[in-house]
Amino acid sequence: MEDLDKNIDIKINQISQKLKEIRLSKGYTSYETFAFENDLNRVQYWRIESGKNITLKTLIKVLDIHKISLGEFFKNL
């Protein structure tokens, strides 16, 4: 069970890092600015990029903001 939990944590971290990379590639050096300009809760978005808390609903919303499909996002993960 510990191996499964560790694997899940690794995947969550990969998702969080990829979201951060996408934000940075779009020119948003601050997660706060990105959250504010896209009507996202600043603290919630910080948690997402930190791998602390992410829901599917929020992931889909962020990907919609970036105009990226789920398939594109998960293609290389």
From TrEMBL:
InterPro entries registered for this protein in UniProt: Cro/C1-type_HTH (IPR001387), Lambda_DNA-bd_dom_sf (IPR010982)
GO molecular function: DNA binding
Sequence ranges assigned to domain HTH cro/C1-type in this UniProt record: 19-73
Protein name stated in the entry: XRE family transcriptional regulator
Biological source species: Flavobacterium cupreum
